[in-house]
Design goal:
- The protein has 8 helices and 4 strands.
- With about 200 residues, the protein is α/β, with parallel strands linked by helices.
- Strand 1, helix 4 and strand 2 form a beta-alpha-beta unit.
Length: about 200
């Protein structure tokens, strides 16, 4: 901004005055989504016909908070880490307190387990399907960068479960070219899993 003022021919006194005003200007209070969710009166009110969403690997509900702010109703949230059951239960309780009034049901199973059960109780035509599998094992920003990365069996089964979810739930863009491209990859991944069980080396698509 100062460079712009200089380019516009502002004097030294003009720039100093501008800086002083900027320092004394009161900033508007930031909208704190977390605090708002502690206060029911400040939570967004969604219409009955609001678009609905299914969330896999839900965590503490950050995605859901953004969804309701955007007018989308989360109806299913799947979250469970078998290696940290106590933490998972605490997260699920927090999630329930924040989003139960929107009709969101927290399923405390892994996404793989939900897939094996055939996504029982899931809406068959949600408007949105969101999945955020754990990427720490191969993310260049985390363990992989330190030379400790490497996809695990859980990573592969999670990816397959997400692909199965995209096939089970006919979401809003199921007629798009993108969706059909994903379906092709899904078939490829499932085929690789089939051949790996027969003794052939597993390949991820």
């Amino acid at each position: 901004m100062i460079r712009t003022l200089q380019q516009q021919g502002a004097t030294r006194e003009n720039i100093i005055t501008f800086i002083k005003k900027a320092k004394t200007k009161k900033t508007l209070p930031k909208l704190d989504v977390c605090k708002n969710f502690d206060n029911t009166k400040l939570k967004p009110v969604l219409p009955d016909d609001a678009p609905i969403a299914v969330v896999l690997f839900a965590g503490g509900g950050g995605i859901e908070a953004g969804m309701v702010q955007a007018g989308i109703r989360p109806v299913i949230a799947v979250e469970f880490d078998p290696t940290k059951p106590e933490l998972s239960r605490a997260i699920a309780l927090n999630h329930h307190r924040n989003f139960h009034e929107y009709g969101c049901k927290v399923i405390q199973l892994t996404v793989q387990e939900v897939a094996r059960l055939g996504f029982i109780g899931f809406p068959r035509r949600p408007d949105y399907l969101h999945a955020s599998p754990v990427c720490a094992n191969f993310s260049q920003a985390h363990t992989a960068k330190a030379g400790k990365g490497g996809e695990t069996t859980d990573d592969l089964t999670a990816a397959i479960a997400v692909a199965e979810a995209s096939g089970s739930c006919s979401h809003g863009y199921s007629l798009s070219k993108m969706f059909h491209a994903i379906r092709k990859v899904r078939v490829s991944v499932l085929s690789c899993q089939f051949w790996s069980k027969r003794g052939t080396r597993s390949i991820t698509a």
